[in-house]
Amino acid sequence: MTPTPIFIYGAGGHGKTLADLLRALPDYDLLGFVDDTRPPGAQVMGVPILGGAEALPGLRARGVTRAVNGVGGIGHVELRLLIFDRLAEAGFTCPAVVHPRAVVDSSAWLDEGVQLLALSYVGAESRVGFGSVLNAGAIVTHDCTLGRVVNLSPGAALAGGVTLADYVQVGMNATINLNVTIGTRARVGNSATVKADVPPEGVVYAGTIWPPRPAA
Question: What domains are defined for the chain?
Answer without folding.
Answer: 4-89 (3.40.50.20), 96-216 (2.160.10.10)
